[in-house]
Every structure is written in structure tokens, then in C-alpha cells.
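Entry for the shared binder. Reason: the reviewer on the internal report wants the predicted structure included alongside the sequence.
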Amino acid sequence: MSSLMRNAYTAVLARGEWWEGAVQTEPYEAAWAGEALFFVRVMQIGEDAHLGAANAVARVQISPDGMHWVDEGASMRIPARAQALAFARVREFGGWLRLAVEVPAGSRMQVVATLALKA
């Protein structure tokens, strides 16, 4: 009986960065992977953000070359509160991945964003 061990890798796309306005994570080449999970954890929200601030929205984007991007269709809502965790799952995405994020005006959040890949 043979067992198949899947390849897996986790890449940190943002560590302790403050996101505000329109933000894109660094592109990540992942052509070898068959599935991917993006995770965004909010470490803290900006002191100037008021209570009940609107959620940020992150769209998964794909690219054939790491330079030209299109929305894949998956997205996640990132709650505007400390220690919130959000994720998006994608499959059959081609070569490159990133997140395009829109943080509502007047809000900012410090985040850790990771990409978990499996072949």
C-alpha cells in the first residue's frame, strides 16, 4: 500500500502592515499548487477608526505573469475589529495569486496575511 504525502507551503504576504485605502499584497507564484487558502488576521484597528467601522473587502486576484491581474471571483469580508480572522479558498487558479483589498475611508487595520498552498 502506498501513501501519498501532499506538498504544502505557507507564505506570509503581510506581517504587521497597516492597511488603509486600496492595498494589494505582494504577488505569489503558486503554479505548482492545486488549492490555496488566504487568511487575514486583524491585529488591531487604527485609533482613529470609530466603533462600528465598516468591514474591509479583499478580492482574490490571479495572473498569468505576476504583472497583469484579474479578479478570480472569491472574496472575503475582513471585520473591523482586533483579532478578527477571515479567509478565502481558491482552486484551479493558474500561476500567480494576490489579494486586492479595499479598506473603507477613515479606517485602517494592522494585519497578518498568509497564503496556505497544497499540491
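Summary line for the report: The longest strand covers residues 8-19.
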